[in-house]
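# nightly structure sweep
# worker-07 picked up a monomer target from the shared queue
# config: single-sequence mode, recycle default, output format = structure tokens
# input follows
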Amino acid sequence: MSTDTILETRELVKEFKGFVAVNGVSLKVRRGQIHALIGPNGAGKTTVFNLLTKFLIPTRGSILFKGQDITTEKPPQVARRGMIRSFQISATFPNLTAMENVRIGLQRALGTSFHFWKSARSLEVLDARAMELLETVGLREFADFATVELPYGRKRALEIATTLAADPELMLLDEPTQGMGHEDVDRVTQLIRKVAANRTVLMVEHNMNVVSSIADTITVLQRGQVIAEGPYDVVSGNPQVLEAYMGTTETELRGAHGH
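# output follows
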């Protein structure tokens, strides 16, 4: 296995009561890349994601992270290895401020060593780093806003900040632009490009514009199988991919690239 592969799956299979959701998926995610997992609804993207982050155990096949077999490991073990999944809103505390949420993320990352610090004053050590992370995701001026009050796109940016607090080597983003308007989509897309500068990102994403503008490698799933892989220009011209996105003409798929 080459050193530039950070995450690899070999013939990954997941069956649910006779239904094969993931059927022999072999993936290689290269270090330092933004790798996108796309496909029509029901293609198995989310199941693959849940297998990678250990929320599901594969029926067959194996998963390697930095060359180590992690197939049977539990989610906390995988997180400690540096593979962190960004959860949607549920991961943040709605009534705490943006700043407090990031600070909790930093405390979690420090783990048990933090129990020595009982006083509130000691938390100030984390404030500078928390503010830095908020700055990274464009939320400095929202630091004291209750999370529940943040606009939707900003909430998603906060989730990315709390994920960055754990300093992941491989960051997994699940539909980061889902349910957003254009302005937010653009902002979050730029943000992903920015945070990917010194780490690896694997993302499940529906939005073709997003994928075409930032993904280095795209894996296309259909009915639980990989039907194409490569950069956008290669994948978007693949007849099987065009057919999978039924009703999408080649010009529409390629036209997405321009926006």
